[in-house]
Design brief:
This protein is α/β, with parallel strands linked by helices. The protein is built from 11 helices and 12 strands. It has 2 domains: 3-55, no CATH class; 69-332, 3-Layer(aba) Sandwich (Rossmann fold).
Length: 336
């Protein structure tokens, strides 16, 4: 086996050798050890190309971004403002399909988060608030960027709630899956963790999501997902291989969210991430079978699960947005 394969598998010996040469002043990509990898045009590069980079500090951080607004207006969210406490949990959903579910419950403050709607729900029995943000984008890279910003202001738990494709013939449109781990076939997770095939969701969060489905008597299965950043390059070979391993869904964000949470938890920040999906289409028979009608009722159910019932507990009678336009977080708290 070529040495590059050992590096891909996370060989600590190879990583140490490259880092030792780096300490002596060598460019790690031109080091003797790296050149011995015998990488050719028809072989697989280790990813990312810089071995062990997940251990190194980043040059651009959410703190710096908040000052220079490199990635847009930043949510300066004062932790001591009683009118706008930071949610403990943030539900991440995609495509802006959730607003009717949230609006019908009339229990939220409506804010603007990088031009995407963010809702802050009523507090739970412990006083923890839940937020829900509807991203206009899909994908791992922007999910990681927005998560870092939200971690910076104090969010602790992240739950992805949205669509996924089925890889198993036993799954049908509208079925619900709580994800326990994700195959890392996107580009983001490898920048936050050492090489590996899977990254796990937080185990306690998986149990909390499962308990929410049991309490609501919602049929659910707990299973792995396959995260890809190139859905239009999903192949029959991949579907056969991953479904044979017991992977039941395919989507674009979970592995990145799980990896980022684990990365910050290792830094002592106690960040958790989980995911719950509703099946919107299928590749199980090695051809794409989209749904004639997206299962919006089931998406509403998934949002209830992700919020751990807090959407269902709403009891305000007035829509806070009546007669108002959406405001930025900065406007809401008087910074502008």
């Amino acid at each position: 086996m070529l040495l590059y394969a050992r590096l891909w598998a996370g060989s600590s010996a190879v990583e140490r050798s490259v880092r030792n040469e780096e300490a002596r002043g060598a460019n790690p990509l031109q080091s003797t050890t790296f050149n011995k990898l015998q990488i050719r045009a028809d072989t697989q590069m280790p990813y990312p190309n810089m071995p062990g980079k997940y251990k190194d500090p980043a040059l651009i951080t959410a703190d710096l971004d908040s000052k220079h607004k490199l990635f847009g207006d930043y949510p300066s969210w004062p932790l001591l403002n009683p009118e706008l406490p930071v949610p403990h949990t943030m539900v991440l959903t995609y495509g802006q399909f959730a607003k009717e579910t949230v609006k019908s419950n009339k229990c939220w403050k409506y804010l603007d988060f990088h031009n995407d709607p963010l809702y802050v729900l009523n507090p739970d029995a412990l006083g923890h608030k839940t937020g829900l943000v509807e991203f206009s984008f899909y994908g791992a890279d922007m999910t990681a960027l927005r998560m870092e910003e939200l971690i910076k202001v104090g969010v602790k738990d992240f739950i992805i709630a949205g669509w996924a494709g089925a890889l198993q013939t036993g799954l049908h449109i509208g079925d619900i899956v709580v994800c326990n781990k994700a195959i890392r076939d996107e580009g983001v997770s490898h920048h936050y963790l050492e090489p590996g095939k899977y990254v796990e969701a937080d185990k306690t969060l998986v149990q909390e999501l499962l308990a929410s489905t049991i309490k609501s008597k919602i049929p659910t299965r707990v299973a792995p997902t396959y995260t890809t950043c190139a859905p239009l390059r999903t192949t029959a070979k991949e579907v056969k291989a991953y479904s044979g391993e017991g992977v039941v869904t395919v989507e674009m964000e979970a592995a990145a969210a799980f990896a980022l949470a684990e990365h910050f938890t290792r830094k002592g920040m106690d960040i958790r991430a989980g995911a719950v999906f509703v099946i919107s289409d299928s590749l199980a028979k090695l051809r794409w079978r989209p749904s004639a009608n997206l299962p919006f009722n089931e998406l509403s159910t998934v949002l209830q699960i992700a919020s751990k019932g807090e959407l269902a507990n709403c009891n305000e009678t007035k829509d806070p947005r009546d007669g108002q336009t959406a405001q930025s977080l900065e406007n809401m708290i008087g910074l502008n």
